[in-house]
Design brief:
DNA polymerase, domain 1, single chain, globular
């Protein structure tokens, strides 16, 4: 499908199906706990990733902002599960997969790795924008490691200077 071409009936049906599945996954994630909620969020994440791919192949400007809001909502739900102890039942590999999947905004920052992302999740910081909003004093309270503190304090300055 070309960028400015109207949505075909087949594409509209596929979009409707995907959005219905996404709604079901998000509802299940919100209504359940533990592994069932984690699996539902993972499925919702996968559907959104597929919709982003579809959006890239057939750009629809009206779809971009809602997808971004849904992705942010999924990240916030994942962070809530983490903070509420719902991930305590996961082994280390599963927990790492969870952080890698739902902490992408943080992991995309230069100098933020899985251990730092996990620390940030523990403190309710799930996205780069939340990190940028922190004062230097708040960053001091989040991490005892002076090297990590220095990296985190420099991030907003580096990111905003880069024009992001």
């Amino acid at each position: 499908m070309e960028a400015d071409a109207p949505l075909t009936h087949q594409d509209a049906l596929a979009l409707k199906t995907s959005l219905g599945q996404l709604e079901s996954c998000l509802s299940l994630a919100l209504e359940s706990q533990g592994k069932q909620a984690i699996n539902a969020l993972d499925s919702a994440h996968d559907i959104v990733a597929d919709l982003y791919e579809w959006q890239a192949a057939a750009p629809m400007p009206d779809l971009q902002a809602p997808l971004a809001r849904i992705a942010r909502f999924i990240t916030q739900c994942a962070g809530s599960l983490y903070r509420d102890g719902q991930l305590d039942q996961l082994d280390e590999a599963q927990l790492q997969r969870f952080i890698s999947r739902h902490g992408k905004s943080l992991l995309a920052l230069d100098g933020v790795g899985p251990a730092t992302a996990r620390q940030l999740f523990q403190h309710g910081i799930f996205e780069a924008e939340q990190l940028y909003a922190l004062s230097p004093e708040e960053i001091d309270r989040i991490t005892p490691n002076s090297t990590t503190r220095s990296r985190l304090k420099a991030l907003p300055t580096q990111d905003h200077q880069a024009g992001n």
